[in-house]
Every structure is written in structure tokens, then in C-alpha cells.
Specification:
This protein has about 290 residues and is α+β, with helices and mostly antiparallel strands. The chain has helices spanning about 105, 120-125, 125-135, 140-155, 165-175, 185-190, 195-205, 210-225, 235-245, 250-260, 265-275; strands at about 5-10, 20-30, 35-40, 45-50, 55-60, 70, 75, 85, 90-100, 120. Helix content is about 40%, strand content about 20%. It has a six-stranded antiparallel sheet with strand order 1-2-9-4-7-10. A hairpin with an 8-residue loop joins strand 5 (about 55-60) and strand 6 (about 70). Helix 8 packs antiparallel against helix 9 (about 235-245) and helix 8 (about 210-225) packs across helix 10. It starts with 5 loop residues before the first strand and ends in a 19-residue tail after the last helix.
Length: about 290
């Protein structure tokens, strides 16, 4: 017998000093759901999850060579395959969306070192990861937890000036265009060769410009699909495909199968309740940061 179903999601922008590096926080607490799995989807943000009660159980990582594991805190880089998270019908924590260009300032390493991986956050953050979870767990209410995050992360922040302005510009252009700007145009605007631009993206972002553009476009489509239904709107998938910059619905379908492991109709059905939990990903909806430096 399950408890009464409860679902709580609270989004918050970080403190102004953190916004160049951190897009947003999402606090979540769900209970009384049927046990199942939900997907952690590729996005233009690194993910830091701090659980508040039960550990996060990752059944399938974006890197299939990584064995399943349980995590009190989890840190993941940009990736192009979904993670599958198993849950017993309840889950609670805070998810942070980090700009890849803020990785050096907040994590002490370039985002490229975390590409396609997720791991225990303590591996990168050291004892700070456990301290963060312990103090968040001991704090009542979302407002208090977000204020604590603001304070601890601001204290930890070490602005890094090694990021070239050209790279920051290219990343911002990709985000602002929804992934629509061609790589050749990015190279022309920065004055870099396509090869050097790709190499810099690999180090500081973790994906090539072309693949990063696909992830940005997919993320935009996913967020459009999550809009509240509007009476009289027909052909939602076709409409979203066009709005997100896909050639057609078949193009959208192919990217969904590649990045989510299923077609968008199946993902929407799962989000509506078939898989229990809704998608819990902070990002553009929780804040506005897109780069550092």
C-alpha cells in the first residue's frame, strides 16, 4: 500500500554573485508514487544533486561502462545519453544546474574532465560534498536551504580568468540561438579556426560545438514539450519541432531516441504519470546564467 501521492518542486535563482556560474536550483520532494525509473536527460548544464533523505540510485549511467550505484551527492558533466534513476516511490533533494564555463570557478576543474560521466560529488568536491548534504539536511524549508547554498557556494567560489572571451562568446551564441548557429559561423565570429574552436569546446565544455548545439536544441524542445497544455493546440509535436529548429517531426523524433532513449510521445506519457516521477532538471527555467568570466 502506498502513501498518499505528494509532489513538491521549488525553483530558485542563485544569489547574484553566483549567477554567471550557476543557472538555478530545484528543490524536490515526492512520495507515494509507484516504484519505477525516470530519466536524467542531456542538457547544456552540469548537474549537481544533493539528496536530502534516500540516496539517488542510478541504474544506468550515460556511460554504460559505469556500474549502477547509490549516491548521497552526484556530479555529472554534459552527456548525450540518458541516465536511468530507480526510485522506491519517494525521492527528495536539490538539483543544481552549473554552466560548463563555471566549472573551474565552482568545481576547480574544466567541464571537459566530467564529460559523459557522473560520479560521487565527493570525488571532485572532497569533504565539502558531505558537509553540504549534512547542513542542507539539517536546515528546515526550501528558502533556508537555498540561502545556505548561496552562502556556502559563494564562499567556495574562485573566479577563473583563463576562459578566453572567444569561447564565452561562442557558448553564449549557441544558447541564445537554441543551437541553431552553424559551427562555421561561430568560428568566423570568434576569429578561430573550426579545429581550434572544437578543441577548446572539448576542454572547457566537454562536447564538440556541433554536438553541444544538438544538446541545446534538444533541451529547448524538451522544455517546450513540458509547457502546460493549451486548449485547441493541435499537432503539438510538429509545432515544437518547428519552434525548436528541427527540419520536421521525424528529425525531432530521431534526436529524442538518441538523447532520451525513446520517442517524444513515450517520454511525454511517462512524464504524465506512467513512470511515476516528472523530470527534475534545473536549468533555463530556474535561472538565466549561461556562462562565466
Amino acid at each position: 500500500m502506498t502513501d498518499e501521492a505528494r509532489s513538491e518542486f521549488v525553483e530558485r535563482r542563485p544569489a547574484p554573485a553566483l549567477r554567471p556560474y550557476l543557472a538555478g536550483y530545484v528543490g524536490y520532494r515526492e512520495s507515494g508514487q509507484p516504484p519505477g525509473r525516470h530519466r536524467g536527460l542531456p542538457s547544456p548544464y552540469l548537474t549537481l544533486i544533493v539528496t536530502l533523505d534516500d540516496p539517488l540510485v542510478v541504474a544506468v549511467h550515460p556511460d554504460p561502462a559505469t556500474p549502477p550505484g547509490r549516491y548521497d551527492t552526484l556530479l555529472g558533466g554534459l552527456h548525450t545519453a540518458p541516465a536511468l534513476i530507480a526510485h522506491p516511490g519517494r525521492q527528495s533533494g536539490i538539483q543544481l544546474a552549473l554552466s560548463p564555463l563555471g566549472a573551474r570557478a565552482l568545481l576547480g576543474l574544466p567541464a571537459g574532465e566530467l564529460a559523459h560521466t557522473d560520479l560521487d560529488a565527493g570525488t571532485v568536491l572532497g569533504p565539502f560534498a558531505a558537509e553540504l548534504r549534512e547542513r542542507l539536511h539539517a536546515t528546515d524549508g526550501w528558502a533556508g536551504r537555498f540561502a545556505l547554498l548561496d552562502r556556502l557556494l559563494t564562499e567556495r567560489l574562485t573566479p577563473d580568468t583563463r576562459l578566453p572571451a572567444e569561447l564565452v562568446h561562442a557558448w553564449r551564441r549557441l544558447l541564445a540561438s537554441g543551437g541553431a548557429v552553424p559551427v562555421a559561423e561561430l568560428a568566423r565570429e570568434t576569429g578561430w579556426s573550426s579545429r581550434y574552436l572544437s578543441r577548446s569546446f572539448g576542454v572547457e565544455i566537454g562536447l564538440s560545438p556541433k554536438r553541444a548545439a544538438r544538446v541545446v536544441r534538444f533541451d529547448r524542445a524538451r522544455r517546450l514539450l513540458q509547457r502546460p497544455p493549451r486548449p485547441g493546440r493541435a499537432g503539438a509535436l510538429t509545432e515544437v519541432a518547428v519552434a525548436a529548429g528541427y527540419y520536421d517531426q521525424a528529425h525531432l523524433d530521431r534526436d529524442f531516441r538518441a538523447f532520451a532513449g525513446c520517442p517524444p510521445s513515450r517520454w511525454l506519457a511517462d512524464e504524465a504519470g506512467g513512470a511515476g516521477f516528472r523530470n527534475v532538471q534545473a536549468g533555463a527555467g530556474a535561472g538565466s546564467a549561461d556562462s562565466a568570466a
